[in-house]
Amino acid sequence: MIAFPPPPRLPQHVVYNPNALGGMTTIALDTSNTIGHPSGPEYQLAVGEGVYALQDDLHLATPPPHPSEHTTTNPNPLATAPVRPFTGVRISLSRTNPRKPPHIYKIANQVSTRSNLATYSIKESEKESRSSHDTSSDGLATHLANAAGKTPIAAEDHAPMIPVPGKDGVKRKKPKTNIVKSNSSFISRVMPHEAMTKRIQEHNPEGLFAFASINRAFQWLDLSSNNESKAQHIIKILFTKAHMLCHDINQFTKGPNHLDIIMGASTADIMWFEAFSQKYARINKNAVINSSPIYQIRWLPGSDNLFLAAHMDGTLIVYDKERDDAAFVPEENSPLISLSKFSNSNYRPLHVNKSLNSRNQKSNPVASWKISNHRINDFAFSPDSRHLAVVTEDGYLQIIDYLNEQLTDIYPSYYGGFICVCWSPDGKYILAGGQDDLDIIHGVDGEGLLEHPVESRTRTAELPPVMIIDEDPMSWLGFEEDCIITACAHGHIRLWTRPQEGRNSSQFD
Questions:
Q1: 342 exposed, middle or buried (CB, 10 Å; 0-12, 13-18, 19+)?
Q2: pTM for the complete prediction?
Q3: Is the pLDDT of residue 413 over 80?
Q4: CA distances from 3 to 72, 75, 154, 280 (A)
Q5: According to the model, what pLDDT value does residue 489 have?
Q6: Between 354 and which of 72, 216, 368, 483 could a Cys-Cys bridge form, CB atoms 3.0 to 4.6 Å apart?
Q7: Total Cβ atoms within 10 A of residue 31
């Protein structure tokens, strides 16, 4: 019996061109962004709060693979070889002069009884901004303790929270390498706009900057510019083999002329990029600390130098952008946290590969925690910055007191993995969404313990979709005061105008 091989599957973005190659199919390579303004009833959505209308449909140019990158045209569905992770379009938003001060800068005299949440001010004036070359020596532990209404944490107990003094004392560093002039093989090409300086100077301080990634492309956009300029990047970076899976803007150090951005790559590299100076630095270069791709990355709240990266091997690692990397070997005397107090005693315990209290804090990593053998899909800091909610591909929601390196509680999904997680602004509830098509809302007490879900699974209703944005899977969703921004897996960014009565304070994912 003769078995013929299956026909080859064509790559995405394929069009039929009768004038090319004798009518054979050819691959359409996107080279520039395009923008459209569809109208009509099919681009509107009537909901309880009003009618949402599609304002802009921005399609990001999807770059082809680099010539040095091996691609499989007809992948074997039964192959066990690792496949490059894909997250679709990811967006980070920023207003250099926000209409309302960030939550972290507000002053409040009341403390939440459920989450011990208090806010505080670190600025002498509303016009002051914090930059990464600030020479102040206050540490993250101090302001976290102040945020919770407690005495400052001793520096000797949380040494990594305090910058390491050098010969000239404590001094904030800035990236040194100019990305436009870089000859690194990590970067394939950099394309700044010909009028980049002029566009930045003419930018409305209350306008919206967007940093978007798709495959190996990362670009800086101005969503508050006119229609033609909105589709034109301010700067576009093409990486050689790395795909930027996640990125985050430091809301603590941002200012009118300063934006610190960290990016996590499929190659496990981390890139610290300062947008206005166009300079960058690489952390975990060539995967010297951890070789697993980074699926989620966020700055630690209120810190100008520390950030947390979730690797796909189930490890959470705290990095310092101002420290050098060194080959990492898990410490032998790291504690193993017991789960005897939890109902699911078979779950893998939290393993501290490197403690915050380790004496070896001259180089990265600052801390390393192994929480699962499966991919970490998302994590979120509590509003009081003392707890961390983490969801994994094996279907567990975990609450971690990361300053004390303790797992406070866990909760399993109905089936499948949890995909995303977030806290309510008052820290009283956690919302987790999973592959089981259920959104679970948990109450949280002041000690980071999960209360029973607000509604039991037997009473959870399956609701029809409220808004069908695209046939492609949605990869990102953000809420702004005047619009909702959505992004799909294959490059479309859509801005939907909100009804007047539905406009509230700004918040984004």
A1: middle
A2: 0.78
A3: yes
A4: 21, 18, 71, 53
A5: 84
A6: 368
A7: 9
